[in-house]
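Researcher: For the annotation table, I need structure tokens for Receptor-like protein kinase. Please keep the output clean. Sequence:
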Amino acid sequence: MAASLPSLGNCKNLLSLSLAQNKLSGSIPPLVIGLSSLSDLYFSKNYLTGSLPLEVGLLKNLGYLNVSENKLSSEIPGTLGSCVRLETPRVEGNLFHGTIPTSLSSLSGLQILDLSRNSFSGRIPEFLEGFNFLQILNMSNNDFEGAVPTEGVFANASAVSVMGNSKLCGGVPELQLSLCKSKGSRNRRLSVTSKLVISLCGGFLGLSFLLCFLFICWYRKTENDHSSVSPTKSLFKVSYQTLLHATGEFSSENLIGVGGLGSVYKGIIQHDGTIVAIKVVNLQQCGASKSFIAECEAFRNIKHKNFVKVITACSTVNYQGNDFKALVYDFMVNGSLEGWLHLDEREDEVH
């Protein structure tokens, strides 16, 4: 018989349908494969194309399914797992591909399973080991990979055929497959790789810490050197406004001395009431700015009980926008050196 399959959707009580060894072509009509009354279905050795319809899952009473030696393609539908009474599914000699659906794990009553001469791939499902009634398993000439199980039907090499799957390994010795690469060897390689990565990371972190330490040392040395060159930068702790208020706007009443490079005022720092002597540098005088820097440097490096302590310094601009520099000393109530040296002369002038 050479034709396409007719629709048999009205044959509600059909139990067995055999159309094997004909020249039927085209796809399998869903209405044919969806007759829930069917227990045996033979479509082998025809020219059927397309996929196995999803409606195959409606065949709740199906025990024998043979669609071998056709040109069926696509993947095995997962709905086939609903045919829980299925004992013999034969799909060999087609163009099926993809992995074996995990839903077939419900077909625990399988006795014969022939998947040979297709293009199935992936690992052999381990659930097949638990099929206690499985007597013949043919998975030859596909593209399966990985380790072949060794329990259940796989323990009997005469009941299992896996030849023509170049990526398979392991199994019982009678199958004569190559040994699988052991997990221990992979773990050892992984361990060596991990150690190498950890060593490299540890070395990198150690080098990073060393570089950070050297940078900190260099930075501190640079800061110290910079402070030696410009000592005033570490002394700028009071503002012009603070000194202005402390001296009553540099009033003559607070003036306690005048020198070649500036004037000295008595002042009271408002926030803590400290009495200080404030030397305001006369920047109009030639060399006054350099003298200010030199004095800062000298008092920074020299400590002696007979020298007046420099509390801080101020280098900024005043309210008129002019440069302003001043040194702030501890206030000494015993007068100045000049006053003590010329004390007799002043007394004579008074008399």
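Researcher: And a one-line annotation?
Model: The longest helix spans residues 183-229.
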